[in-house]
Amino acid sequence: MLPVSVCMIAKNEDNHLEECLKRLRPCRFEIIVVDTGSVDRTVEVAHKYADKVFHFAWCDNFSSARNFSIQQASNDWVLIIDCDEYLENVNLANLEEALSHNKDSVGMIMRNNPYTVQGSRSIMSERIGRLFNRKYCHFEGSIHERVRTLDGKEPESFQIPLTFYHEGYVSESDKRMRATRNLEMLLHNLEEKGPSSYIYFQLGQNYISLNDMEKAAHFYKLGLDLNADPNSAFVQSMAETYGYCLMDLAKYDLAMSLKDKYEQFSHRADFVYLMGTVYMKKGLYDKALEEFQKATTLSAYSRTGVNSYRANYHIASIYETMGQPDEALIYYKKCGDYEPAKRRLKELAAAASAS
C-alpha cells in the first residue's frame, strides 16, 4: 500500500460518489470522505467504500473544508479528488518513484474533460495540482482553492501517472445555482483582496457557465491585462478562452489583438489554432493556413484535435475556398474519422460522380 491518503469533500454527490470510490478502491489508497451537509445518500455510499467518513459544518470556504479533510489523513501524502472524477489510468510503481524525489512539490494529475463543439463531442485535457505532502503544502482561497506552500507561495510541480475522467454533468438549474453561488463568493473575494488574475479568470469561467460571453470576456481581459505568468496553466486557458468568447461575440477585430500575446503562448497548439481561426474569420487565408499548419507540428495542447484533425479540416476548407480542390482532398483525408471531414468527402465524391 502506497503511503497516500485520498481526501474528498462531498455534498449531495450520491450520483457520482459510488463510481468514483469503486475505481479508487483497487489502488489501496486510504480513502477519506468529508461530508459538508448532504441530504441524499452521500454519507451512506461513503461508509460503503471509504476508510474514514467525517462531517464538516459548511462555512462558505472550500479551503477550510479541504484542509480539514487532509488533517484527518493517516499519511502525509494526500491526493485530492472530486466526487465526479473517475480514475482512468494509474501506474503505482512510477507514482511511488515520483513521490520519493519530490517531497515538497505538488503532483499534477491529468484530467480529461468532455465538451461539445460544433455538435461533435471531444476531450480537453489539463494538468491539475492534486497530490502533495501536507508537511509542506495546504489549500488557500475561499473558492476555487489552490495548493500553496505553508508560507503562501506557489510550489514547484511534477507530473504523476494518474489520469481521471471528469464526468462533470449537472442539470442546467444546478449549474446556474452553483455559478450564482460562486460569483457571490468570488466578487466578495475580489472586493476583500483586490485585483487578481486568478479571480478574474474564475469570474470569467463562471460567466461562461451562465452563458454570458460579454461578461466572461470582460473579466478574462482584466486578468490578462495584469500580465500574470504565461507559463501558468490558468493563464494559458484564460488567453485561449478569451479568444473563443470574442469569436462567439463576432468581435473578430478585437480577437486579432491576441496576436500581441503570440510570443507568450505560441508554444501551445491551442493558441496557434485559435489564431488560425481568427485569421480565417477575417479572410486572411494565407495567414490562417500558416497557423493551422504550425499547429499540427506542436505537441503541447489541451483540446483534442487542435494539432491534428481539427487543424487539418480547416486547412482543407481554406484550400476549397481558394479553389484548390486537390489540396483540399489531401487534408480532408488526413482528418481520419472526424465526422465533418467524412461528410465533406462524401459530398465531394457525389459532386464529382454527378459531373
Could you walk me through the main structural features you see in this protein, from its secondary elements to its overall organization?
- This protein has two domains: 4-166, Spore Coat Polysaccharide Biosynthesis Protein SpsA, Chain A; 173-354, Tetratricopeptide repeat domain (Serine Threonine Protein Phosphatase 5, Tetratricopeptide repeat, Alpha Horseshoe), CATH 1.25.40.
- It contains 15 helices and ten strands.
- The chain has helices at residues 14-24, 42-49, 62-71, 92-101, 172-193, 197-209, 213-225, 233-248, 252-256, 262-265, 269-281, 285-295, 309-321, 325-333, 339-354, and strands at 4-10, 30-35, 52-55, 77-80, 85-90, 106-117, 120-133, 137-140, 146-149, 157-166.
- The strands form two sheets. Strands 3-2-1-4-7-6-10-5 form an eight-stranded mixed sheet, with helices on both faces.
- A hairpin with a 2-residue loop joins strand 6 (106-117) and strand 7 (120-133).
- The longest helix has 22 residues, at 172-193.
- The N and C termini lie far apart (68 Å).
- The relative contact order is 0.07.
Structural class: alpha/beta
Distance between the termini: 68 Å
Q: Which residues form runs of ≥5 with pLDDT under 50?
A: none
Note the total helix count: 15
The shape is globular
Task: Tell me the name of the CATH class of the largest domain.
Answer: Mainly Alpha
